[in-house]
Each structure stands twice: as C-alpha cells, then as structure tokens.
Q: What sequence folds into this?
C-alpha cells in the first residue's frame, strides 16, 4: 500500500517517542548501578540523570568487597543467590521440558480424548498463591524448604504448561511422512522418536527451553515462600539488601537488578520469533 | 528381546492393527510424568487445602498438619471470609487495577500494532527494543519503578519542568497515589505483550479483502473497523484474557514497590494472601481463602474454555 511522507514521519515520531518512554525505567536503573554513593541519594540537591563519576563499586560491593565510602560490608554476597537462581531455573527447565516434551509427543501423535491439555491450562490460570499453603506444608514435610531442588521441582511444575503447549504445537507442525516411513521400515515408535523426531526438533526444543528458563528465572513469589536463607534467589536476596547504616542500598540493588535483568532480555530477544506462541500457550503462531 | 522381534514382524505385516495398542500404551507412558506432576501439584494439594481449611490450624500450634482435625471448626473460616472487609477490599483493588490497566494496555498495544503492521526501514530494531520491558524480571521491574517514584526521583524531576516550584510528591507513601504508580509499572511492563499478540493477529488478517475495499474507496478507518478488527476477534479475546488473568495474580512488581502499603492501600488479593500466610500465620483461614478463589476461578475458566471451544467448532 502506498503511504505518504507525512504519514511516515508521523510513524517514526510516535515510535521513537514510545521507545524513549519505555526505555526510561531501564536506563535509570542502569545509570543507578554505576553511580557512586554520593549520587544515589534521592533527596540530593540536583538529580543527576547520568553518573558523573561512573564507578564499578556497586558491583564490587555486592560481591563482597567493601568500598571506602560504604562502611558496611555484606554478611552474604550475591554470588550464592546467583548460583541458586541458575541452578533452580536450569533444573526446573529440565524437569518441565522432559515431562512436557514427552507428554506433547504422546498427545500430538496418539492422544485423542485425553484431558491433560485442559488440566494444564487450568494449572496456568490459578494464582500460585492459591496452592501455596499445601505446598509449603508438603515441602517442609519432605525437607525441601530452602533447598534448590525443592524450588526446581516447583518451577518445573509451574512452567510445565508452557513446555507442553510449545512442544505440542511444534510436534503438530512437523510433517509425519518421515516418521511413517521409518515405522514401515520396522522401527519402533520409541526409536523413531529418539532417533528421528527429537533431532529434527532441536531448534524447537532449544527455543522452548529458553522460554521456560526465562519464566523460571523471572520468579519471585515462589522463591520468597520456599527459600529462607541458604538458597534464596536473586530477587529475594535483592529485597533483603538494605542496611541500617545507609538505609536503602540504591546503587547496589540496581547493580544486582541489572545482573538479574540481562539474561532474560538477551534470551528473549533471541527467541522473539516464538514468543507469541509461548505466551498464548500455543493458541497463536507467528 | 524376543517380544520386540515378534512385534517388528507384526508391524511389517499389519501396520495399523498392532500399532494401535502399542501406541496407546506408549502414549500412556509418555504422558505419565506430566500427569504425575499435575496430580502432585493440583489434585493432592487441593484435597489437603480442603482439609486444612476446615480447621483452625496454624504452623505455630506445634501439632503436625495431619493432626489438624483436633482443631476442627467446620465452615467457620468460610463464613468469616464472607464478612472479612480486608479481603473484599483487596478483591476490589485487584479488580480496579484490572479495569484500569487492561483497557489501557489494549489500546496502546493496538495503536502500536497499527504502526508496525507494514514494513518500514528499521522495523526489526524498533520491535525488539519495544519488547524489552516484558523481558525484565518483574521483581526487578518493581525495583525500577520504586526508584522512579522516589520523592527525589526522575518522575518528580520531570514533573518539576512543568511547574514553577520543584515537585516533591511522595508517590509510594501516599495512599491515593501508590496504586497509580503500581498501575504505571504494570502498564509499562505488559503493554509490549498486548502489542506482540495483537500485531501477530493483525498481520495474519488476509490482505485480499482490504485490497478490494481500497479499490472501492473505503477510508483507512472504515477498513480498520469493518475488516481488520472483526477478523481479529479471537486474538483480541485471547490477549485480553491473558492480561486479565495475569493481573488477577499481580504480586511481584507491586510487592517490591509498596509491599502492599502504605497501610493496605495497594493490597491486592495475592498480597493479602501472602501477608496472612507470612505475618498472621493463620493457615487454616488462608487455605479457605485460597480454595474459595480456586473454585470461583475454575468455574469461570471452565465456562470460558467451553464457550471458546464451542466458538472454534462453529467456525
């Protein structure tokens, strides 16, 4: 369709305006992460939008190095929460992807009248808050409170619907002729699945796994309820960062926030082709 | 080993017949792990929830949960819930966030989708940049907005440009403004999701009818409202449903920004449940709240899903 020049200019102007607004919160935190303590202050005379004396002190501080200006030093550094976040998110992704891929293949190829898909949608609808009491009771009964594995299992279950629906739409899209040919050749179904289907699905598996990983990495509530000290994840640790001497540790928290924010942003942009499919539980493909 | 070789032979002779039962069995085994996980997180906990909700049990009582029957109180938790004004206030606040944020996100997302529907130089870059907010960990987004709305923060700084005296609004500690800040954060983070879904839907509207309408001299507005929008109906419903459901669960950003405060000014239903769980520790009562919500949501979602699948069949 032909478009006029004014229309094009208007389009760029509007897009740039919206992008500028949408970047402000992120850039503000980015700037805060590199600000020395003198520029943190929210009540200071003039607001500095960009750090005048950029420093890496905030990053050094959360990893245990006390700076000259910050008298406080941390009892626990950010290193362990980062490991906890990674471990719980990765193992949770493995659980969700294993169970989800198997179920998706089963139902995509020979599952008529099974009500698992509906159960999984329902699972997604419920606020996690609503099953937290029994979960906390069960987990403390099993000794899984404040334990990375306990957290990973819950992550695996919570993101199972995404893993399942993503993989199911990918399996549904895959042409069956190749599988059928192998079946006629005398291969068993399981062998066809392992030797032919899964290798063909490698890109789909990778993007689904990344999607599920982002969901797990983004959790706050579940970790808040199920971890207490040793295995707190980054967001939980971040909220616990404050000191009686300096009040809010603005810069240090911003540095940590930046560390937490970077992986999903990069991974998310890498898999943006499949985001719609994932977010709508496969109802919409791009 | 023997069995396998026999089966192979059978498949070679009669591919359909024997494959049927073998595949049924394989289908069962493949879905088993997922079924178990769902059972583990949904069915068993809900039964336990029902049991605990009939008692006055608290983890502080010193008796294990399975002996909670010693504190049996029947339906009293549920009748308490009906007259719990804090619960209903939290419900109302959640609903308020919903009816403010969902339409704004929808209109902004739709507008952006219109801007992005056809090709133009730089589209890919702009598109990726616009998606950044929804990738940010919600808890971190909460912290970003916590920083923005400090009384000496950038929001007030910007507002000061438009007024004679420096603006020093204490956004997050003012009961009437804190919820506005929370809504701003939600709109910032989730408008990109609306945009993403609506754009995908808009692109999939077939071009032929629009071309015909152009030839007949229909204006852009007319084409948009009579051809494009009606064809996007299902996608619009999906997008609205996703956001409505997610806002009902709103917790992370909000809790980090305000902790539900000042007082209870931004206490939504998830924050309320969290506080009763962690601070008041009356778990029997929490179980009743959670179960009540679960039942209401299940009924609504069952109706919605059956309506949607009926609609899909009709087409």
A:
């Amino acid at each position: 369709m032909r478009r006029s020049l004014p229309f094009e200019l208007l389009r760029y102007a509007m897009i740039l305006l919206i992008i500028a607004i949408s970047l402000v919160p992120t850039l503000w935190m980015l700037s805060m992460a590199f600000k020395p303590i003198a520029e943190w202050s929210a009540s200071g005379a003039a607001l500095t939008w960009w750090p005048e004396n950029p420093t890496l002190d905030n990053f050094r501080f959360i990893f245990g190095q006390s700076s000259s200006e910050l008298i406080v030093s941390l009892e626990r550094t950010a290193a362990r929460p980062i490991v906890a976040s990674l471990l719980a998110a990765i193992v949770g992704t493995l659980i969700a992807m294993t169970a989800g891929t198997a179920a998706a293949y089963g139902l995509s190829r020979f599952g008529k009248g099974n009500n698992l898909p509906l159960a999984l949608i329902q699972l997604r609808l419920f606020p996690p808050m609503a099953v937290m009491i029994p979960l906390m009771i069960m987990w403390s009964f099993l000794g899984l409170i404040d334990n990375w594995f306990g957290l990973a299992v819950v992550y695996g279950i919570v993101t199972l619907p995404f893993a399942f629906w993503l993989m199911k739409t990918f399996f549904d899209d895959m042409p069956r002729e190749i599988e059928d040919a192998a079946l006629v050749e005398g291969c068993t179904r399981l062998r066809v699945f392992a030797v032919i289907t899964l290798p063909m699905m490698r890109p789909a598996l990778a993007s689904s796994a990344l999607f599920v990983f982002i969901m797990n990495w983004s959790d706050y509530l579940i970790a808040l309820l199920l971890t207490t000290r040793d295995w707190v994840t980054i967001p939980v640790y971040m909220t616990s960062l404050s000191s009686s001497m300096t009040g809010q540790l603005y810069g240090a928290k911003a540095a940590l926030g930046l560390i937490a924010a970077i992986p999903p942003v990069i991974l998310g942009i890498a898999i943006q082709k499949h985001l719609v499919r994932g977010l709508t539980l496969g109802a919409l493909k791009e | 080993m023997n069995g396998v070789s026999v089966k192979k032979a059978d498949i070679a002779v009669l591919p359909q017949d024997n494959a049927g039962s073998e595949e049924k069995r394989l289908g069962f085994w493949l879905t088993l792990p997922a079924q178990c996980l769902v059972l583990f997180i949904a069915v068993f906990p809900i039964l336990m929830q029902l049991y605990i909700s009939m008692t006055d049990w608290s983890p502080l009582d010193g008796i294990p949960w399975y002996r909670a029957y010693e504190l049996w109180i029947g339906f009293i938790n549920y009748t308490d819930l009906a007259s719990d004004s804090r619960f209903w206030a939290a419900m109302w606040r959640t609903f308020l966030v919903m009816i403010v944020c969902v339409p704004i996100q929808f209109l902004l997302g739709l507008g952006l989708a219109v801007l992005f529907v056809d090709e133009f130089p730089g589209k890919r870059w702009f598109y990726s940049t616009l998606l950044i907010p929804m990738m940010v960990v919600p808890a971190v987004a909460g912290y970003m907005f916590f920083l923005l709305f400090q009384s000496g923060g950038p929001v007030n700084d910007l507002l000061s440009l438009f007024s004679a005296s420096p603006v020093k609004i204490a956004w997050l500690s003012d009961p009437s403004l804190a919820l506005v800040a929370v809504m701003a954060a939600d709109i910032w983070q989730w408008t990109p999701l609306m945009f993403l879904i609506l754009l995908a839907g808009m692109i999939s509207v077939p071009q032929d009818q629009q071309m015909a309408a152009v030839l007949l001299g229909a204006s852009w507005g007319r084409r948009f409202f009579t051809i494009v929008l009606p064809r996007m109906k299902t996608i619009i419903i999906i997008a609205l449903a996703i956001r409505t459901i997610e806002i009902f669960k709103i917790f992370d950003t909000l809790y980090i920004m305000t902790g539900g405060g000042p007082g209870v000014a931004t206490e939504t239903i998830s924050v309320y449940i969290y506080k009763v769980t962690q601070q008041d520790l009356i778990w029997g009562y929490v179980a009743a709240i959670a179960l009540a919500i679960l039942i209401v949501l299940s009924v609504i979602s069952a109706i919605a899903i059956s309506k949607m699948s009926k609609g899909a069949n009709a087409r």
Summary: The domain at 84-281 of chain B is CATH 1.10.3720.10 (MetI-like fold). Chain B touches chain A through 100 residues (CB under 8 Å).
